[in-house]
Structure formats: C-alpha cells, structure tokens
Amino acid sequence: MQQDEIYMKRCLELAALGLGKTYPNPMVGSVIVHGGKVIGEGWHKKAGEAHAEVNSVNSVVDKSLLKEATIYVNLEPCAHFGKTPPCASLITKHKIPNVVIGCIDTFSKVSGKGVTMLKEAGVKVKVGVLEKECLESHKRFFTFHQKKRPYIILKWAETSDGFIAPLVQEEGKPFWITSPESKKLVHKWRTEEASILVGTNTAEKDNPALTARLWNGCQPLRIVLDRTLRLNDNLQVFDESIKTVVFTEKLKTSTSRTKYIQTDFSKLHENILNELYKRNIHSVIIEGGRETLQAFINESLWDEARVFVGEERLVNGISAPVLNTNPKSEERISKDILKLYCNNT
Q: Catalytic: 53?
C-alpha cells in the first residue's frame, strides 16, 4: 500500500468515529503529515461543531510545520459558509501546500468548488485516493442529496427454513430467532442510523421499543405505520421517551414527542420518503414486518439488506421477504449467519 493510501485509510478510520453523530453532515476524517510523520489528526464529531480539517489543524502543536505539510481528507473540503467557515479557506490561510482528497463532494454547494478554491490559491491537489472506499463511507450523505431520499437499510431475521414468525403469535411477545450477540449488534446499528421504521402488525404483535438499549449512542427517530389508528396507545413506541412519527390516514392530535402525519396510503412509500427528506433524515432502518419489507423490495426502494439466519426451524409460519439477488457477503455472529445484500439497480 502506498503512503497516500495508508494516510487515507487512517482518514476513513477517523471518519467512522462520527457514525450516527454527524447527521445531516457527512462523516469526515483528516490527517496532516510532515516529513513522513503524522503531526495532526481530527474528525467531524457532531453537526454544528468543527469540521475534520479544523480539528486536525488544531491538533498540530507546531503550526509553522503546516507550510511544508500535506493534509489528507476523505471528502473534498467545503467551500461555503454553513454553521462553520469553509475548510478550503482554512487550508489556504495556513498555507498548507498539498491536499490529498479521497472523493469529490456531490453536494451542490461544494461539488468541485473546494478543489477550485484550493488550486486558485496555488495549492497542489490530488483527488481519488481510495476513492471507492471513500464513496462507500459517504453512501448515506450522497444518497440523500442525489436521490432526494434517505439511505434505506432493510433488516430482518429468519429461521433456517425461511420463516420470520409463527402463524400464531401471542400479542406483545416477540418470537426470537437470533442470539443475544446478534440482538446487541442490531442495537449498535440503531445508534448509527437516523431513523427506524416498522409496520402496524410488527408494532402490535411484537410491541418493540425501537430503541438502542443494548448499546450506548444516539437514539434513532421512531417511525410507525398505522393506517387506521388501530394501535393501542400503551405500546412502547408511544411511551414518549424519544421522538416518534406515525403515518396514518386518520386525523389525530400530536403530542410533544409523537407526531401524527396524515398521508395518502396509496402513495405511502413516496410520501414517507418525501417527508423524511424534508426532515433532513439521511437514513432509515426498516425492521418489519414482512409486508412492509416486501413492499419496499418490490418497488426497489432499498440500498442494502442485513438478514440474520438463525438455527431455529418452524416448518410452517410467516415466510421471510424475498430478495432476488445474491448476498454480497456472509459472516457468522455467534450461532447465526448474517447475510449482507446490496441493491445495484
């Protein structure tokens, strides 16, 4: 691996520390190198706070070295005033002569402008180091701005014989297929995404809290589908502990933390995604049930799917959703198999 790739890999590692905390901003990491040694590092920790480039510059003890240094960043430095000043201006202010960028920012306020600003100031710019990996790290941010919708992750667990639940299930008692280790991983995922969505049947039968109780981090916005408002107010999703949005065709007064949105269910998915886009929600995990998951699959409204396959067998039950594609990868989580799919359409 070449030196530029080594430092860009470190940028990606730093950027990942902001996963779930930077919305609606992208995850960015930055490394500053002088004479073959790292003299500064930083990442964007939270929306509204300093960007990665600022944090890496601030971490440099001897600022005079910046005039002979190279700054690495996994995304094109911004060139516009938002909640913070432009990072391209910061780089030119400190006379950093070399900038290595993982990928160009497709966001219209930035796209190419940061590189142009740097070059006009006489900075030597290199673009495209570990570009594929950098694009992957910004998949949520780019999907949101390019497709005008959140990045959509499907998640479910199925038995070894292809069922997600028994035909008859005691209300409020979920049927567990996977191991405690897989459950903990799911809670970690919840801290990494902006929202989580379930259909009416899942909310009613499983009574999920849809929180990240088993992992320390941010709580996702809860989204519930309840066309006829048949769900009981005593369900955990209505406990007012975190913000919740309910899509319904009926009219109901919202509370301080639960907002009811009246919408046309004949265009439900379009309306949901438009509403989440308006709310600046960059990602959503869809956790069930079967009809809800399959509906998004049928409309090709998904970006990746995470499917656990447990050892349990049911012989008969509610069939798992069907993805007409092969898994990108598989790994073992305790006694379960986790299959990862990508939608390349």
A: yes
